[in-house]
Design goal:
alpha/beta, two-stranded antiparallel ribbon, 8-stranded mixed β-sheet, about 25% strand
Length: about 240
């Protein structure tokens, strides 16, 4: 049973307006760490599929536990919700709403958070995280805005051909710090674009990123393309990016 001290936490719900997104706004969930103090400054983790990260990934509970028990530096989490009907169009590099989503994230969401919360405004203290296509769009954001984002956490990234081509056409990526995991039972996962071998997709992406000199943590382990696998991997992934005080 989860100890009560991990469940005492602050999660705010907010809405950011957008001139890029069709619906004109996007809902956010914002986790404030234990001991949150507006006089301090914090790293921030930006999660695609925000609702899933909080509900299925239990990212707020895991973060609280790591901060209280392991001395991880306190950090904020911003979960960016998505309408599942539009998810592929926003997250996939060849999606019809993809460029609009990238601009919303960099030009509207980021300033919204940084004007309202005491987060650090250097690329080194921003982490992008996502599962499946959420991992893909997180990488795309870093490629489009390297001055803003350098750290990407990809949980079973859906690195289809369009995403791989982006890397093939990229210059040196020595500035990119990429964390990748994939489950060995993800060899024939059915998506809205067909059945894919996610192990092969991630191995291919790993090889391409290495050719471009990206800094890479890569791991394959037993797991399926679902939150039961990714939730267990979140503590290690967070330790990779957030320092122990």
């Amino acid at each position: 049973m989860t100890e009560q001290k991990y469940l005492k936490r602050t999660i705010l719900k907010e809405t950011v307006n957008s001139r890029y997104l069709t619906e004109g706004e996007r809902n956010l969930r914002i986790f404030l760490p234990p001991g949150y103090n507006e006089l301090l400054s914090y790293p921030v983790l930006y999660c695609q599929d925000g609702e899933d990260f909080f509900n299925f990934g239990r990212v707020a509970t895991i973060a609280t536990q790591l901060i209280l028990d392991e001395g991880l530096e306190p950090f904020l989490i911003v979960g960016v919700d998505v309408n599942k009907k539009n998810r592929t169009e926003e997250y996939a590099p060849d999606g019809s709403r993809h460029q609009a989503y990238l601009r919303f994230f960099a030009e509207e969401l980021l300033p919204y958070i940084e004007e309202r919360y005491p987060v650090r405004k250097e690329a080194n203290f921003r982490i992008l995280a996502g599962d499946s296509l959420g991992g893909t769009v997180s990488l795309q954001l870093a490629l489009a805005y390297p001055e803003l984002f350098r750290h990407v956490m990809s949980l079973s990234g859906a690195f289809y051909a369009s995403a791989q081509n982006e890397i093939v056409n990229s210059m040196d990526l020595g500035w990119l710090n990429m964390y990748m995991i994939v489950g060995l039972q993800e060899t024939d996962y059915e998506t809205d674009r067909g059945v894919f071998d996610f192990v092969a997709l991630n191995r291919n992406m790993k090889a391409l990123l290495e050719l471009k000199q990206a800094k890479l943590f890569y791991e394959e382990k037993d797991g399926k393309h679902q939150w039961g696998f990714w939730q267990k991997e979140l503590p290690q992934a967070l330790r990779h990016f957030i320092e122990i005080e």
